[in-house]
Amino acid sequence: MRPSLQTLTLGCSKNRVDTEHILSQLEGHYEIIPEDARPGYCDVFLLNTCGFIGDAKEESIAAILEAVGRKQRGETGKVVVFGCLSQRYNTEMPELIPEVDAWFGAIDFDPMLEYLGVIPDSARSTSRFLTTPGHYAFLKISEGCDRRCSYCAIPFIRGRHRSVPMEELVAEAGLLAAKGVKELVIIAQDTTYYGLDLYRRRALAELLGKLSEVDGIEWIRIHYSYPADFPDDVLDQMARNPKICRYMDIPLQHISDKVLANMHRNVDGAWTRALIARMREKVPGVVLRTTMIVGHPGEGPKEFRELLDFVKEARFERLGAFRYSEEEGTFGAGHFEDSVSDRTKQRRLDRLMELQKGISLDFNRSRVGSVCRVIVDSYSDGMLVCRSEYESPEVDGEIFVRYDGPEDPSLLTGKFITVKITGADEYDLTAELI
Predict the structure, then answer these.
(1) Looking only at Cα atoms, what is the longest distance across the chain?
(2) What pLDDT band is residue 199 in, cutting at 50, 70 and 90?
(3) Distances from the Cα of 56 to the Cαs of 53, 243, 259, 305, in angstroms?
(4) Could you tell me where the DSSP H helices lie in 73-138?
(5) Is the pLDDT assigned to residue 39 strictly greater than 80?
(6) Residue 30: DSSP 8-state
(7) Which residues are bridge partners to 220 per DSSP?
(8) Which residues, in sequence order, are CB contacts of 86 under 8 Å at separation 6+?
(9) Which of 111, 175, 355, 359 is the one with CA 20 to 30 A from 71?
(10) What is the rounded distance in angstroms from the CA atom of residue 142 to the CA atom of residue 53?
(11) Given a cut of 80, is residue 38 above it in pLDDT?
C-alpha cells in the first residue's frame, strides 16, 4: 500500500506550479490527498511556503505551526517544508521550529524528492499533477528575476531570471491540453522579460503565438507584466489573435516620480501614462489589472493624492493593493526609513480600495445587457459559476448564471457557454443563459 501525502500551497500561483511539478514526480509513489480534503491522517504533509512580505511570512509560519500540531496529535507522520520562506531563512527556520522533519528551498527540488524516496525523472519535467480545476492551469514561463525593485526580496530568494525553453513550454501546454485544460494563465516574476537570456530578445509574443497553436487551448491570458520596456508586439498579438484574452495584468505599484524612483521601477509617471494609453488604443476593450503599494518610503500626502488621482484617471477595471513591508536584505530596508506608520498605511489602503470599488462597479454596470462567451468553473446552489475573458481565475470576480436546464450541471464544468449580463455589483455579475 502506498503512503499518503497531502500538500498545502501558500502564496502566488507560481508556487502552485512548483507544487504541481513536484506532485507529478511523486504520483505513483504516493497516494495524493487533495489540498481541500477534509482533515485526516497522511503519512507526509508537504507545505509550500511564501516569504515575500510580512503578512505572507506570518501566514506561512502559522501554517507550519498548525502542521506541527497535526503531527503532535498523530494526524500526520512527517512534516516537510519547502518554498520561498525556507529558502530565505534556511538557517533560522530549522532552529525556530525544530519539530519539522525536513526543510528544503525553492529552486532545486531534487533533494526533497530523494528525501521522499523518489528518484527524479527528467522525462516528467513537463508533466503536471493539476491542483486547479481541470479546465485551466497556470504556465510558468521563467524563474527568478533580474529586476532590482527596492522593496522586493524575490531576486535573492529565487535567483537570476531563467526562461524556460519555448519547446518545453509548448510540450507542457500540449500535455495540459490533453488533460482537458482549455485556458492557460501565463505567469512568471516578469513575463515580458521572457526570452532575453535564451534568445537575446523579448520573445513573449512569439511564445503566445506558438501556444495558441496547441490543439485544445482556447484562452491564453497574461499576468505579471513589468511596465519598463514593455514589448508592443505582445499588444499586436493580443489585438489580432482571438485566443489571447483581452486582459493584461501589469503591476504598476505607483505613479509618483519620487516613489517610482525610490522603488527602482525604471519608469516614471509619464511613461506609465503613455503605456496605459497605448494599451487601450492598440487593444480596444482591453481589461487592465494592476497592483499598487501604499506607504512606500517617499510617499507623503502629496504622493498619495497623486496616486488617487491617477487611479481615478486610468480607471483600471481590476486593482489590488497592499501595504509596504520593509523586508530585510532589500535595498529599501538598507537605504530608506520606513517612516509611514502602520495606521497611516492601512488608512491609505482603505481609501484606495474604496475608490476602486466605485470604479469596478461602474465597469461592471457598463456590461449589463451585453452578450459574452464564458467558461463554467463550477456549479453551486442552482448557479453556474463562470468567467469571461475579462475575469482571471482566483483573483477576479465571477459571473453567476442560474441554471435549471435538463443537462446535469456538473457536466457543464469546463465548457464554454454564451450568456447575457443582467446585473452587477462591485465584483461579481449575474447573467442568463442564451
Answers:
(1) 65
(2) very high
(3) 5, 34, 23, 28
(4) 84-88, 92-96, 110-115
(5) no
(6) B
(7) 184, 244
(8) 49, 51, 93, 103, 104, 105, 106
(9) 111
(10) 21
(11) no
C-alpha span between 412 and 406 (Å, rounded):
11
Containing H/E element for 431?
strand 429-433
Tens of pLDDT, residue by residue over 373-390, are: 999 999 998 999 999 999
Helices in 27-83 by DSSP H: which ranges?
A: 54-72
Q: Which ranges of 224-341 does DSSP label H, i.e. alpha helix?
A: 232-240, 257-263, 269-282, 301-314, 331-335
* pTM, two decimal places: 0.94
Long-range interactions of 23-27: CB distance < 8 A, separation 24+: 23/128, 23/129, 23/131, 24/124, 24/127, 24/128, 24/129, 25/109, 25/113, 25/118, 25/120, 25/121, 25/124, 26/113, 26/116, 26/118, 26/129, 27/129
Alpha helices in 151-293 (DSSP H): 154-158, 166-178, 196-199, 204-211, 232-240, 257-263, 269-282
DSSP conformational letter for 144:
S
Please choose, from the candidates 67, 73, 74, 76, the residue with its C-alpha nearest in 3D space to the C-alpha of residue 100.
67
CA 254 to chain centre: 19
Q: What DSSP assignment string belongs to 383-423?
A: EEEEE-TT--TTTS--EEEE---SS-GGGGTT-EEEEEEEE
* 300 DSSP 8-state letter: -
**Residue matched to cell numbers 448557479:** 383
H or E element: which one contains 43? strand 42-49
pLDDT in tens, 273-313: 999 999 999 999 999 999 999 999 999 999 999 999 999 99
φ/ψ of 248, rounded to 5, equals: -140, 125
> Which neighbouring-strand residues pair with 210?
none
Number of H helices and E strands in the chain, helices first, is 15, 18
Residue closest to 221 by CA, chosen among 44, 86, 392, 341:
392
Return d(Cα 255, Cα 290) in angstroms, integer.
12
With 0-12 / 13-18 / 19 or more C-beta atoms within 10 angstroms meaning exposed / middle / buried, residue 378 is middle
> What is the SS3 assignment for 1?
coil
Element (H, E) at 294: strand 287-294
